[in-house]
Amino acid sequence: MAGAELPAVIVDIMRGGPGLGNIAPEQGDYFQIVKGGGHGNYRVIVLAPNSAQEMCDLTLLAFELADKYRNPAVVLADGFIGQMMEPVNFPDPISTLPEKSWAVQGTPESRDNLITSIELVPEELEAHVRHLQMKYETIVSREARYEGYRLEDAQLVTIGYGIVSRLLRTAVDMARDQGIPAGLFRPITLWPFPSRKISELADSTYGFLVCELSTGQMVEDVRLAVHDWVPVEFYGRTGGVVPTAEELFQQIARLWKEIDGFES
């Protein structure tokens, strides 16, 4: 679909694994979805909601971005968000959709439209791959999304997405009550990953704490985004185990004690 430039929206509600696993929350599909689960030099847009409202809003956005860039988009949520019950405000329905010159419409004019990803001549395939790469670069420059919380004076930045970001928000408040200058950075797009903003935060931050419901997958993208001298710690739970806010606060306090002692 990426090679044929076919818009599509795929929803992946991540559960405990690998194998049969269970239906409890996890975030172990990050590599599969964000890095690509098939062959070739392709990318998909990945949106990570952290509420029932965002499950609505980001799914709508996924359709818009998929259509705009003629590319698959994935809504990637953990099982906690997928089973959550919260009030949701739905937008007004769209009455008309834009015409697509490339699509099959069941009309004589669109009869010759043939969408395929097969390019058997190496030079022609290379040209197609270059075309796709230029599109991906445009997406990176325009569509990276994130949310920050108490980052203005943060010296220790926590990073998480999905349900973990909501728990980290409470943990950051707990840390602030104890005099720890913590903040939260939440990637909303996992691809394109908001690397530039994380790199900017590294200039004024003593350390990062990445929390995931996995053995550590997004943490690799965070480490690629920061300077070598800024420590990036990881804390994860798996198998459907969701950490408490108190548990995450203890990790913040532990890391801040190490950073504060080093700085002293």
- Main beta sheet: 5 strands, mixed
How many independent structural domains?
Answer: 2
Using only CA atoms, what is the Rg? 21 Å
- Share of helix among residues? 25-40%
| Secondary-structure arrangement, i.e. CATH architecture of the largest domain | 3-Layer(aba) Sandwich
Number of strands: 9
What do the pLDDT scores average to?
95
Strand order of the largest sheet: 4-6-5-8-9
CATH class of the largest domain: Alpha Beta
Structural class estimated from helices and strands = alpha/beta
| CATH topology group of the largest domain | Rossmann fold
Succession of helices and strands: EHEHEHHEEHEEHEHEH
Broad shape: globular
N/C terminus separation: 54 Å
Strand percentage: 15-25%
The CATH homologous superfamily of the largest domain is named Thiamin diphosphate (ThDP)-binding fold, Pyr/PP domains
How many alpha or pi helices?
A: 8
Which stretches of 5+ consecutive residues score pLDDT under 50?
A: none
